[in-house]
Amino acid sequence: MKWVPLYLHYPKLFQYDTIADDFVCLRNISSVRDATIKILSGETVAKNQVIKVFPADSSFYSTDVEPFVDGIIKKYGMDDGHPR
Q1: Which of 7, 61, 65, 84 is the least buried, fewest Cβ under 10 Å from its Cβ?
Q2: What is residue 2's DSSP assignment?
């Protein structure tokens, strides 16, 4: 869970490891440090924005929510939370 903010902002820093059944960081510590500094300084998103991109992959969500993700996105869209 400690990598979630970095993954949401910089998914290319990670790769899914099928053996470990988890995401692993691909870059060296300086890349991770630089990405973290950008997040904390507010360079990656507009003020008060929580995440940069709404995760559309239903497997990103907990198992109790996962079955509903596609329907929620179809009904409300990806950008504004208003019904379509």
Answers
A1: 84
A2: T
pTM of the complete model: 0.43
Give me the helices (H) in 1-84, please.
Answer: 4-9, 29-40, 69-76
Show Cβ contacts of residue 10 under 8 Å, excluding neighbours closer than 6 positions.
35
CA distance 33 to 52: 18
Q: Are 73 and 44 in contact (CB under 8 A)?
A: no
Tens of pLDDT, residue by residue over 47-70, are 666 666 777 888 878 788 889 888
In this prediction, residue 32 has a pLDDT band, given cuts at 50, 70 and 90, of confident
Could you give the CA distance from residue 76 to residue 83 in angstroms, rounded to a whole number? 4
